[in-house]
Amino acid sequence: MISPTTSEASDADKRVALFVATLSSFLAPFMISAVNIAIPVIGGRFAASAVVLSWFATAYLLAATMFLVPFGRLADIHGRKKIFIYGMFIYVTSSLIAAVSNSAELFITARVVEGIGAAMIMGTGVAILTSVFPPRERGRVLGINVAAVYLGLSLGPFIGGFLTDYLTWRSIFMVNVPLGLSALALVFWKLKGEWAGARGEKFDFVGSVIYSLMLLALVYGLTQLPETHALEVALVAIGAAGLASFIWWESKVEHPVLDISLFRGNTVFAFSNLAAAINYSATFAVTFLLSLYLQYTKGYSPLMAGAVLVPQPLVMTALSPFAGRLSDRIEPIIVASTGMAVTTLGLFFLIFLGEGTSLALIIPNLVILGIGFALFSSPNTHAVMSSVEKKYYGVAAGTLGTMRTIGQSLSMGITMLVFAVYIGGTRITPDVYPLFLKSARVAFIIFTCLCFLGIFASLARGKVRD
Known about the structure:
Elements: H1 11-46, H2 50-78, H3 80-99, H4 104-132, H5 135-166, H6 170-174, H7 176-189, H8 205-223, H9 230-252, H10 261-264, H11 267-297, H12 302-309, H13 311-329, H14 332-350, H15 359-386, H16 393-422, H17 433-459
Helix pairs in contact: 1-2, 1-4, 1-5, 1-7, 2-3, 2-4, 2-8, 2-16, 3-4, 3-7, 4-16, 5-12, 5-13, 5-15, 8-9, 8-16, 11-12, 11-15, 11-16, 11-17, 13-14, 13-15, 14-15, 14-17, 16-17
């Protein structure tokens, strides 16, 4: 059964769609950031080498990035609810396997499958929301959804540290099981209808393979950015060649996995996605850097450091629905560009972070960043989803999710490159704290410049409404 129009969705369907989409939007990014803080403990359990340790986080991120757009396209063809159900089942099952893993190999395999499941739910959750809610209500619900994404990313280190300290690292994965099963039950029994805007069209398998392998090479190359070995250079070159091949193939195939005309002839879609990539590139590593600063320079425990960082996600969670509603009334370009400018200001203040900087200055700055994130993200998502036809909702959501993961990878790559230049391959011990502080400031300078350029990318998109 296909729901004929978004306006016919019942209030019950709207509530269920909002809950499950928001929950899935929280779970996927939460897993990235929560596991990162537990990786040293997990590595100790499996006696993992540094190379294997890096795969504990990278395997999930790569899998999610590779499959976001292909599964978004499959959802557009076969039904967004159907792909969401399959994805949540895979996500819950793989989380359970990761929680009970007794070897590094099994754990990494589970993380890969978990990333695939995350791609299926991230690529459909926002598309379902856009399908169920009419245009006049989308800003508000997309604001709530975006708040869940940032809440997952920001609270992950704090909750992950708490669970690891008081329960064990396995509990991080076990949390997914009851939450995921609850979402599945609601979708099965409460969410009526199905949404497939491109039903009957063929799936571009060849284009999907090229796309996934291209991103595999590019994103893994970005995560290894500090290295200058032949393999890393070759991966970036292969990724660039793959991108050219993908564009050529998609331009000639009848039903492409990603319609290139969305970028060529749709400035709102193209520049909104570019702005999202820039925003994540400039901001994702901020929590990572501040967490290290608070623990190394200030001497706080992981739990205390996480508590200091909480104001940012709290502000973002509170303001994102408001920013979404604002973009229902005011042109999204104005709200999102203002948010990018506020974020730039917050990053600029972090350049002056020093050993003696007090929490009375750090916490208000986190509030500024939270305001900037909120004002940018939900209106930007609103702009992306409102700029395409219904048949492209899944692809649009997948593309936006891909911009997020690519931006996250680039942000960490920039940070690691700066560390490699200023600190080298040594551990961060008290005698190198001054070098760490210097490298953090350099990273914040780069992020501030990136975010400043992002203001113009946001402004260049043009108006969503005529």
